[in-house]
């Protein structure tokens, strides 16, 4: 085992900000034994099939953060064209459009925005995206059911 | 504007290799035609700079922006032009017209009173900013752009100063930061240009070689499977797949063969290069000449180096040695393919090794320049063609065409054998050597044509064979 490295100032500052000045509808709590690993919750935005749900995510800051984007994944099952069965998220700012100037806070806001505005043209979960395009009312209904079943607080 | 004179930095292939190459590869290159040039990276960079300058001129944009757009379109000028005119090109790199105006200026280093870097959160006084003037510390910029360079991602080198700023760091900004970053950037764009033009530029796979084969448009249109080149470093390779050249078979079969044989060839599992035990007395016998007719110095047994059978069993013909007959019990078992593979592999290896060895005869015996210039390269070329013909024989199913090919192979084998014996002999039999070389050239040329033009039916077991 290598000796634990001091946490970079950037991560310390971001963590402080997340705890003292949280974003409405979002929580992010670092693990005591691994300060790069966060338990995250995002509440489903109003006027969406995810309304009323509390979605759990895990977030990890890799060694090279912020040169590398955070790794982030849904733990709660969710019916969404840009989120697959394993909870992986298709979001440009987590990949090509990542910039070190972005922060955990901005990324979590983007994810909340993705719940409000799914993009079935750039899908990760192909079957869900197909349903979303072919029979949107039914897709919304399923998303609502899943929210009730898996994401109830 | 860029200068158009680039002819100094390359030379025509035919000036250098005319005599030699004509013999090495009869029938596939006409030395009067210039199918390709051997050039260096500077030549490629000059060609890249011309493209960049043309696009910059066309749209009145700066050269660094032209470079980024061209990279985003993988150097497809037509597509870029079309989408630029339709107003869609900038969005592809996440920019707007307004950003483009700002990006006309390059970034700069700045000296400031102590402030906190938005990236590392340390206090800094030496910062860097793109034309947008959003600042981050210089260490973070150097590290960020350095990492972008090593990952080869030059399209999303975003402003570090502000998270919603879209500006990208361009060549100008890399240059402002450091000489190293600038030259790294130029290397990467040249590499991108080279890759995107892979149908006209082929980097030489020779170890340590930095030469590039530039195909003229007439060759770039053709099926490259059949074209083999020799680089100025001496490396000969196939233009289609960049592996060692493999006439008379196509790249697909050659690479299948290398997949199942590459490891063995490295380790020489089935063929100790030059030493094998005598089949009769098991004395270690080293072969020093390039022929297959062996005589054991210990027991005087005469045998064939390839099949290890008594030499007289061939009856002066190589047909028996060429043609593979699976043993009765192996025929219907899964081992049949493996046995076939071994049969053809031995012949392949042996010819490949000989094709290299025969070249060394140069230094040994003949003083006649004519013989050296003609017979030695012809023999080496013949061996190589034979080697790859055995690969073809492994993959094709039985047919009249296959029998015809086997007959040619056995005829060429025995004549190559005779030539090798003559070359290794003491008397300087120049005339027969030249005569045999002429004969082999014709026969080999016909064999290549036959192999390439026949619509072979391939053996499914051979195609799917994987050694366990
Ligand atoms: Zn910094
Ligand atoms: Zn900026
Ligand atoms: Zn070379
Ligand atoms: Zn090839
Ligand atoms: Zn012996
Ligand atoms: Zn034999």
TrEMBL record, chain A:
Pfam families: UQ_con (PF00179). It comes from the Eukaryota. Gene3D superfamilies: Ubiquitin Conjugating Enzyme. InterPro entries: UBC (IPR000608), UBQ-conjugating_AS (IPR023313), UBQ-conjugating_enzyme/RWD (IPR016135). It is an enzyme of class 2 (transferase). Keywords: ATP-binding, Nucleotide-binding, Transferase, Ubl conjugation pathway. SUPFAM superfamilies: UBC-like. GO terms for molecular function: ATP binding; ubiquitin conjugating enzyme activity. Its EC number is 2.3.2.23. Residues 6-152 form the UBC core domain. The active site is at residue 90. PANTHER family: UBIQUITIN-CONJUGATING ENZYME E2. Belongs to the ubiquitin-conjugating enzyme family. This is E2 ubiquitin-conjugating enzyme.
From TrEMBL, chain B:
The keyword Membrane does not apply. GO terms for biological process: protein ubiquitination. SUPFAM superfamilies: RING/U-box. Residues 113-325 form the RING-type domain. Pfam families: IBR, IBR_1, zf-C3HC4. It catalyses: [E2 ubiquitin-conjugating enzyme]-S-ubiquitinyl-L-cysteine + [acceptor protein]-L-lysine = [E2 ubiquitin-conjugating enzyme]-L-cysteine + [acceptor protein]-N(6)-ubiquitinyl-L-lysine. Signal peptide: none annotated. InterPro entries: E3_UB_ligase_RBR, IBR_dom, TRIAD_supradom, Znf_C3HC4_RING-type, Znf_RING/FYVE/PHD. Its EC number is 2.3.2.31. Keywords: Metal-binding, Repeat, Transferase, Ubl conjugation pathway, Zinc, Zinc-finger. GO terms for molecular function: ubiquitin protein ligase activity; zinc ion binding. This is RBR-type E3 ubiquitin transferase.
